[in-house]
Every structure is written in C-alpha cells, then in structure tokens.
Amino acid sequence: MFEKNLALVPLFDAYGELLPEQKQKMFELYFGDDLSLSEIAEEMGISRQGVRDSIKKCEEQLLFFEEKLGLVKKMQKIADAAEKLRLLGNTDSERAALGEIANALDSLI
Hints:
elongated
C-alpha cells in the first residue's frame, strides 16, 4: 500500500515550483485534494501506476532539494527563534521590541 507522507507538504510549499507542471498537479490532487491514485489517473488520463510513480518521483525530488538546499529546515529554525524571542523580556517595552524582531524574522519565512 502506498501511504501518504505528509512531511512532504512543507517541502512542496518550498520547492514545488521546481517540479514539472504535471507532477505539481498530481501532487496537489493527491495531498491537497485527497484524491485517490485511481481518481487522479482518471483525471490525468494515465494509469494508476503512472500516477504512483510520478508521486514517488516527486517525493524523491523534494527530499533531494531539501537535502541540498535545506530551506525548510532553515525556515523552521527561524520560526523557532522568533517564538523564543517572543517569550523573552522582563518589561512590556522589552517584550514589544523583541516581538518586533520576531515579526521581522517571521516575515522572512
């Protein structure tokens, strides 16, 4: 059985535009619209196995992009740092200043 790896969704958000248009559509139908492989095959006019192979190749490509570029990992580190900043500060003005820095970090994501 072919199981959905939902950890791929953030990778697709970061790198999806690097995939061919047809593979993007299949990925979106499978993960975003929750269509079955058979439903996607019917819509795309290819075999169920063809859809499965394409989605598997998407997975491999997305993991390769993340391994080489690490953008999703970096974005998560920025988000974590922004959240930690929001928790710092003893006074309202310190918290406000740190909140502004955290918001600036969030805007990078």
